[in-house]
């Protein structure tokens, strides 16, 4: 898809009313620092439109990016910050859950996992939670450029096993430096838009 326009249309905090959009939504989840903003920027062909949520203490929000007036990218708050108080973590969790449960337009959830590491307990919980809510996440294995090509298959296997992913779960390796994987991710989105 040619991205002609990008607009951060809605920013939702913990108590905000979620928008009732009439176009399909594609959500992005992952732990802080996994490369979520970099991926979203790469997909939108923008250098720094989506801002990183990775500084501790920074307000966490659900951001809705309107793409070409055709679809929305939904940037979910990054999880996994050790320094954040449990009560606040729980609030974010509830906010994400409220979104997953109520959105009528959510078609794909991309769950981002760093290709270098075995999925964490938080990653696994997030995966299970997404599945529990009736979605089959597509996994994006980020920071592909940080490993040797020879390690790729082994790391993908580690992610698949670490998440205990359902058979057939799609895992797309991606690098925001080389942009490898970007076309495959867009194809995945376009397949859904055609349905
Ligand atoms: P977020 O917190 O998940 O939004 O993560 P960011 O997109 O802000 O990325 C966190 C850090 O990882 C930044 O320093 C990025 O430059 C770096 N990063 C993100 N994606 C990649 C990648 O594909 N390759 C490399 N080498 N670094 C990346």
From TrEMBL:
Pfam families: MMR_HSR1. Residues 22-195 form the EngB-type G domain. GO terms for cellular component: cytosol. CDD domains: YihA_EngB. Signal peptide: none annotated. The keyword Transcription does not apply. GO terms for molecular function: GTP binding; metal ion binding. Its cofactor is Mg(2+). One of its GO terms (biological process) is division septum assembly. The keyword Cell cycle applies. PROSITE patterns: G_ENGB (PS51706). Keywords: Cell cycle, Cell division, GTP-binding, Magnesium, Metal-binding, Nucleotide-binding, Septation. InterPro entries: G_ENGB_dom, GTP-bd, GTP-bd_ribosome_bio_YsxC, P-loop_NTPase. Necessary for normal cell division and for the maintenance of normal septation. Belongs to the TRAFAC class TrmE-Era-EngA-EngB-Septin-like GTPase superfamily. EngB GTPase family. This is Probable GTP-binding protein EngB. The gene is engB.
């Amino acid at each position: 898809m040619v991205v002609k326009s990008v607009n951060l249309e809605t920013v939702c905090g913990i108590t905000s009313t979620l928008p009732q959009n009439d176009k399909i939504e594609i959500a992005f989840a992952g732990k802080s620092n996994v490369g979520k903003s970099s991926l979203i920027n790469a997909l939108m062909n923008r250098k720094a439109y989506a801002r990183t949520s990775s500084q501790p203490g920074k307000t966490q929000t659900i951001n809705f990016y309107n793409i070409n007036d055709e679809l929305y990218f939904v940037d979910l708050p990054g999880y996994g910050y050790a320094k954040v108080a449990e009560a606040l973590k729980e609030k974010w969790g509830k906010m994400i859950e409220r979104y997953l449960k109520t959105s009528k337009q959510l078609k794909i959830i991309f769950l981002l996992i760093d290709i270098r590491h075995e999925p964490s307990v938080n990653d696994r919980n997030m995966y299970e939670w997404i599945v529990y809510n009736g979605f089959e996440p597509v996994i994006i294995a980020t920071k592909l450029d940080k490993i040797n090509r020879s390690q790729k298959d082994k790391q993908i296997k580690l992610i698949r096993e670490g998440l205990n992913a359902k058979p057939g779960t799609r895992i797309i390796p991606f690098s925001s430096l080389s942009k490898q994987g970007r076309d495959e991710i867009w194809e995945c989105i376009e397949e859904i838009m055609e349905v």
